[in-house]
Every structure is written in C-alpha cells, then in structure tokens.
Amino acid sequence: MQKGGVGKTTFTNLLAYELSQYGKVLLVDADQQGNLTYLYNENGNLVSPKKCFLSVLKEETNLKDSISICREENAQSKGLYILGTKKNDNDLRSYMESGFRDDPNSIRTLIKDAKDLGFNYVFFDLPPSFGFYEKIILSNTSDIIPIIEPEDFAVESLTNFNTQIKKLKVQYDAKISPCRYLIINKGNNQKQVHRYWTQRLKESSYEIFEFHDSKAVSGAISYHLPMQEYQPGNPLCKTIALLANKIK
C-alpha cells in the first residue's frame, strides 16, 4: 500500500519464511530502501554491485549468480533465498524512474528464470508508491496481499488500490487474481476508529488476518531473525501459519 511503515517488508519476510516449508522461496527486495535485505544481512555480505536486484535488471549478472542463501534446505525448509538490494540504493531509485522503462519485460524474465532454478514462490517487496515500476512488477504477479492499518485514510487507499489493479489487468493484460486476503496490522481495539474499520472490513469480500503491535517484531529485526525463529510461540506466528496454509 502507498504508506511507509505499515508492515509490508515484515510480513513479506514472515510469509515467505513460512511458505519455505512447502516449497523453495525467493525473496526479491525491489525497494530501494533495502530493508528486506537488511533482515538477513547482518554481516553486510549479501549484496554487492554485481550481486543484487539492480544488476539482474540491467543484465550485468544472471539470477543464479546474484541470489544469496538465507536458510539452507533442511527437514523444516525447502530453502529460502534472497535477491538483495543495498541499503538506500539511489542507483536503483534512479533506474526505477528512467532505465526501467527501456526493458519492462525484465521482471517477466526474472520470474521465468526463478522457475527454471526450481523456485516455487517468488515474493516482491515493493516501495510505498504506485508508479510505472510498481505497476509492471504487480502486473507480472499472480497474487497480491494488501496490508493496512484500520484507519480512514488506509481504507480509502485500499479502495483506490483495487481500482488501479483492475486497470492493470486491462492495460498490461495482467493475470493477477482478485485480492482474496487482507492483513490488518497495528489494530488497537481501544480506538473506536480501529474497531469500526476492522468490523467493516470483516464484512467485506476479503478474508481478514489480524495482527496487533508486538515488541517482539522489533526484537526479531534487531537480531536479524524471522519471528518464527526469534519467538516461535508468538501469536503472530500462528496467524502467519494460517495464511500460509491458505495460499501454499
């Protein structure tokens, strides 16, 4: 959604980690902030100019040589990998605004290459904006899971977002499935407006997954760990597992 800090990166990571139980997963950090990469980049060695999302887009390196292992394949995981972006990558920001227009098919190629490498799931973490760059990436995906806070402006943004997705299906012949699931994050039942919008959204066509603020999320990020490893008993993990089971 077109708002920073709502939890897009956190939940991209949580859901991807959970789905790695069922298939090989590739995370693509398509946000110039590089926050998704930071979650696994404790030693700062996951990205370089020749090993990152931008280098693949510009065809300077291939996908196979540019991805990094986040979690090895084992009894609990089919493998979790990342195509990273360095922190606050201004070069990616510039490419998003100009060079990307010269080869919009690069995303389609990336997804095809990921499938050829045996990946079952590819996740894109996007910036909080809705320009040509974001539209092209979204138009090449099969599913989109919005995440919002239950407030007036956020619900209005969700309505606008759905309108734009319908336009994408016409403009780019996109095969995106209708948004079936919606994550409500940072809901506070003590706030009347949160209670009101949460109830209204539950009456909509979405299947709702609710999350409430947890200090454990910040703790997990500071230790460069997914929540499932940092605090596996946290209710957040159970809700993510339910969502993953729905879409696996």
Task: Give your account of this protein's structure.
The mean pLDDT is 91. By secondary structure, the chain is α/β, with parallel strands linked by helices. The longest helix is centred in the middle third of the chain and has 20 residues, at 152-171. The protein has helices at 8-19, 35-40, 53-57, 63-66, 90-97, 106-116, 132-139, 152-171, 192-202, 215-222, 227-230, 235-247; strands at residues 25-29, 68-71, 80-83, 121-125, 147-148, 181-184, 207-210. The two termini are 23 Å apart. Strands 2-3-1-4 form a four-stranded mixed beta sheet, with helices on both faces. It has a three-stranded parallel beta sheet with strand order 5-6-7, with helices on both faces. Helix 1 (8-19) packs across helix 12.
Topology (elements, then pairings):
Layout: H1 8-19, E1 25-29, H2 35-40, H3 53-57, H4 63-66, E2 68-71, E3 80-83, H5 90-97, H6 106-116, E4 121-125, H7 132-139, E5 147-148, H8 152-171, E6 181-184, H9 192-202, E7 207-210, H10 215-222, H11 227-230, H12 235-247
Parallel strand pairs: 1-3, 1-4, 5-6, 6-7
Antiparallel strand pairs: 2-3
Helix pairs in contact: 1-12
Features of this protein?
248 residues, alpha/beta, four-stranded mixed β-sheet, three-stranded parallel β-sheet, 7 strands, 44% helix, globular
Question: What strand line-up does the widest sheet have?
Answer: 2-3-1-4
Low-pLDDT parts are: none
Return Rg in Å: 18 Å
Intertermini distance: 23 Å
Strand fraction equals: 5-15%
Relative helix content: 40-55%
How many β strands by DSSP? 7
Order of helices and strands, N to C?
Answer: HEHHHEEHHEHEHEHEHHH
